[in-house]
Design goal:
about 260 residues, 2 helices, mainly beta, about 10% helix, 14 strands, globular, three-stranded antiparallel beta sheet
Amino acid sequence: MRYLFALLMLALGPSIFGQQPPPGALSPGVPQELARWRAAHYSDVRYKLNLTLEKMSPVLKGTMEIRVRVSGGDGETGSGGGRESVPLAVAGGVVPIVLDWRKIKGHEERSTVSKVSINGLVLSPGFSRPLTDGKPPEGGTPNAFEENNEHLIFRDGVVAGENVIKLDFTSPILTSGSAITRYVDKEDGSEYIYSLFVPSDASTAFPVFDQPDIKARFKFELMAIEVVSNAIANGFYLGEESANERRARKIPVNSPHFR
């Protein structure tokens, strides 16, 4: 009987304990353990970004929608062929969603996330889980996400199947050392803003799965103050709309190779 129990635990081990990131996976950066674990549990990732650029602003402002399909217990992704979302519980736990969100040293105050929700469930900011008496923090909700070691970690509200995370964010625009970079022409004072997503730097612009083997579809709209004259991206230009001295440029980038 003792040997039978040991064999049973070995058989169940991968399906039970594999649902949580392995030890050391939630260290700063993207450890190999985390990258492998996420690649095994996440699929069908899509980002939708609405960005706002203002002349000489110290930050990039945006709203974001992240869609990701999370595997369920024993590899299940929901009933009905995996297209339905069902509550995800495996041995009393869930498969969390772990996003990368790295703040640039010396400019941490410019990197913010707010108005966070998952699947329509409003979440309180990081480090504000309910106290043991069951009451949420003042001004908070009974559900929360965590911000820890350059990651945003979602447990509350996660379901097997497709999950939708929505949030607002700001990130720094610097002359060097940032994913969103500013250059000012010394001759005519023209301002240029460009992105430089070298490995591991995309997560300093907005929360992402910052690893090359998680491909994603990507779409964004750019809202620019009228003084911004040109916008260039590797996607089809859909047109622009003007309202309250602002101009919105719709540029979807639907590339399966974006990461």
